[in-house]
Amino acid sequence: MKKYLLVSCMLLMSITAMAQFEKGKWIINPSFTGLNFSYSDDQKAKVGVNMDAGCFLADGFALMVRAGGDWSKPVDKYTVGTGGRAYFNKTGIYLGAGVNLTRYRYKGGDHDTAWRLGFDAGYAFFIARNVTIEPAVYYNWCFNDNNFSEWGFKVGFALYF
Asked: What is the pLDDT of residues 70-84, one digit of tens each?
């Protein structure tokens, strides 16, 4: 019985979510309240902060901008970028891609800049009419050096207007 109730609730939330992915709606997706754990050859495990925001240019497709920071020792990392996100069947499942410019600041004052191509896949789980919790997996491929490429799991929340 619990399984049927859970499936019914998920279906009902998916139906109410349809209006949130329409053309002209806005999305703000901070992940500073969630986890942004990742793994890369240069830093192993770390915790970061990202803020994504965007507008739905068509039903189910959003153009996004991103800013983020990571203050893990011994490298601080700052990121800006842009990309898109596509939602499938208005159920909350999405795929995203984008290009990011990342600035690395090392202990001792050295710095480096790298372009990265990012991909993510996740699910927008509606906890209210316009508020979601969004777990996702991602991969950021670095053009300059594969040691800066990273993959990971993040959890954030989003507001849809």
From this structure: 877 778 889 999 999
